[in-house]
Amino acid sequence: MAESAAFEAACAALEQSGALDRLAARGTIRLALKQAGLEPRTATARELRVVAGRLLPAELAARGVAEPDAVCAAIAKALEGVESTPASETPDAVFARLGGG
Amino acid sequence: MQALAAVAIGILVATSALVAIRLLALHRRTRAAPELLLGAMLLLSVGVGYPLLIAASRAGGRAAGALLVVSTLAVNVGFSLLFVFTWRVFHPEARWARALAGAGVAALMLKALDRLLDVQSRGAIHVSDEPLSESLLQTAPVLAAYLWTAWESLRYHGLMRRRVRLDLADPAVSNRLLLWGLTALCVAVGVAVNSTAIALRVDVLATPWVLLLSSATGLAQAVLLVLAFVPPRGYLRWVRGRAAAAGG
């Protein structure tokens, strides 16, 4: 199944920062998303910005990345132009509606 | 004990019908499939199917057979919609989920057809007269539908709890998934109790332990349905306040 555009953009930004290679970058962001209860397939740009701000710095520091906050800021910036709505309706969107919002 | 069971079933049927009508009214505005699937499921299976199934067990002659066929159709179409709902909401793109939902729908439709043919050939029959193997063909897919629904809802609730801590999700929606998962578990327990009773050849409408357990699960379902889909404002305030106090 295809991952969301926001996930791909965050992985690309992390890889371009030179901190991690492609495989490690994707794995690290997957782990951070899992901690946040999010899935790569449906994670939006807004959600990834929050993850980059609050969970990813610790993950990067644990992998020996120098200046993790600066790398996360670059990821958040890269996410600014990415569409923030999920590609398909998520279960939480459905259940928000079923209970009256 | 029978009076308590009658009250519990009455409350469950009325609550399910109320929630169903609310969801179908929501579908008229949104035209979205989940509210149609869930609303029609509750209306057909609990609002129509259960009362007719009880009427069939009390009626005699040809009326019993006709009521049993109509109730089986309503219940089985309703539970088929639950399979479709769970597939479409939680795993719309997964082949395994589509296959599981398809298998569940096929099993329920085949059982409905089997009961129709049985009534046509034998005339009046009662559910309690069915051999255990035939009874299991009815209850196994229903149990599967509710256990699958419970698993998906509670799994997703677990994800949402983590999102709530990061302010990425509404605590009320996270709680709604928990309530729906617990509703499905309650139904599964109720189905298991009735299946056990039928396997033991006891009268489900006259045996105290069956009536007590059925009443308890029925009342729990009614409360959970209301809190999930017609939540009082005070309850939502309490859920959100509790999450805020917990720091999420």
Question: What's a concise summary of this model?
Answer:
The complex is a heterodimer of chains A (101) and B (248). Chain A is an all-alpha fold.
Biggest interface, CB < 8 A: A-B, 22 and 35 residues
End-to-end gap of chain B: 44 Å
Given helix and strand content, the structural type of chain A is: mainly alpha
In percent, how much strand structure appears in the residues of chain A?
under 5%
Q: End-to-end span of chain A in angstroms?
A: 29 Å
N to C succession of SSEs of chain A: HHHHHH
Largest sheet of chain A: none
Description:
The complex is a heterodimer of chains A (101) and B (248). Chain A is mainly alpha-helical and 101 residues long. Chain A has one domain. Chain A contains 6 helices and no strands. The mean pLDDT of chain A is 93. Chain B is mainly alpha-helical. Chain B has one domain: Rhopdopsin 7-helix transmembrane proteins. Chain B has 8 helices and no strands. In chain B, helix 2 runs antiparallel to helix 3 and helix 4 packs antiparallel against helix 5. The radius of gyration of chain B is 19 Å and the shape is globular. The model of chain B has no long low-confidence stretch (mean pLDDT 92). Chains A and B meet through helix 3 and helix 6 of A and helix 1, helix 2, helix 5 and helix 6 of B.
How are the SSEs placed, and which strands pair?
The complex is a heterodimer of chains A (101) and B (248).
Chain A: H1 5-16, H2 22-35, H3 45-54, H4 56-62, H5 68-78, H6 91-98
Chain B: H1 2-30, H2 33-58, H3 61-90, H4 95-122, H5 132-165, H6 171-199, H7 208-229, H8 233-245
